[in-house]
Design goal:
This protein is of the alpha/beta class. 40% of the residues lie in helices and 19% in strands. It contains ten helices and eight strands. It has helices spanning 3-12, 29-37, 48-57, 75-78, 91-103, 127-135, 137-140, 160-180, 199-204, 214-217; strands at 19-23, 42-45, 63-66, 84-88, 108-114, 145-152, 190-195, 209-212. It has an eight-stranded parallel beta barrel. Strand 7 (190-195), helix 9 and strand 8 form a beta-alpha-beta unit. The longest helix has 21 residues, at 160-180. The chain starts with a helix and ends in a 6-residue tail after the last helix. The mean pLDDT is 95.
Length: 223
Amino acid sequence: MGIAENIKQVKETLNEGVCLVAVSKTKPNEAILEAYQAGQRVFGENKVQELVKKQEELPKDIEWHFIGHLQTNKVKYIAPFVSLIHGVDSLKLLKTVNKEGRKNKRVIPCLLQFHIAEEESKFGLDLEEAKALLSSPDFAGLEFVEIRGVMGMATYTDDSEQLQKEFRSLKEYFHHLKKHYFQNQASFVEISMGMSRDYQFAVEEGSTMVRVGSKIFGEREYH
């Protein structure tokens, strides 16, 4: 089966309104163009250098999402064009995004990354840290950042109950933040959770955005 057929199959399993982010990291431009020709416009990358190169070479109406762990010294390279930064987990990073947004005269959309997995290796905030960040005077002064919602990665497991529990916790964090911090912000709508192996559980629990790579492009190639 080709990439176009894979996209069609994934989309058929998504609820209406769920955004499919095709994770194109390590994939060649030809594969991305194949997905593009099938109507896919939102792509996710996790390496800044690779993302910048692809953005220069590929169609300009592609929406690029940065889905990896972003280092502050790399923000400037993607600030001119990135459509959404998925994994913001510190005020320091938000301040850098804000600074680069100001330079580029654009508000940069971001998601707050929460740690919902039992694995230590995953990045992210807990609810108390998120509340401290959002309550800080420094955050209030960020004019070139827009928090669009939350993001989280579940434990790498086949245990459906655990996945549901973790996805449910992210949804609860989203509702808490919406109620206490973003009640009047219409654009605070995203719950980015679910990847190739677990996105159907995530969608059941209210995901608005899934990050799917291998189910579209086949297994990853590492160089």
